[in-house]
Protein: Ubiquinol-cytochrome C chaperone
Organism: Tianweitania aestuarii
Amino acid sequence: MLRKLFGRSENAGRTAAVSLYEQIVAAARQPAFYAQWNVPDTPLGRFEMLSMHMVLFLHRIRGEAGDLQRIGQNLTDEFFLDVDHSLRELGISDVGVPKRIKKLARMFYGRAKSYSEALDSRDEVALAAAIARNVRPDVINWSETRDIAHYMQRASSYLASQPLTAFAEGQVRFGSVLEESRT
């Protein structure tokens, strides 16, 4: 009885997080990132775009309590479970996975900090620099970084316009990369 009473919200939060994660993955896999904006279509490049969208969503629900806080934690757990699964699919041994997960977690939280600070201050130059440093450190003048920074700022505003109830129901929209690049 108590489990049903108290477990319902937790289960709903897990269901919402899984739905949100699927939509975040879809947003991160928009072909324009890779075909037009020269993000490497590699496991690391896909990790970068997925991290970027995770950060955008978590930035939006930052400071929210209750169900959204639980959904945010469940979403983060889902993200790292997916990273773990992906590493195993790439052939990383069971012994090597925890070390790689630790490194990727440090990368993710570092990106979360730099992207959030730039979004908070509405500093597109700092955001573009963080994106370039993280996504294409091998390229000196990656001109598309400005497009991605602009997309992130627009997606952040778009997320801010969506009601929190939609997130609690497992619905999120980021907008299209192609729509963003036309403006």
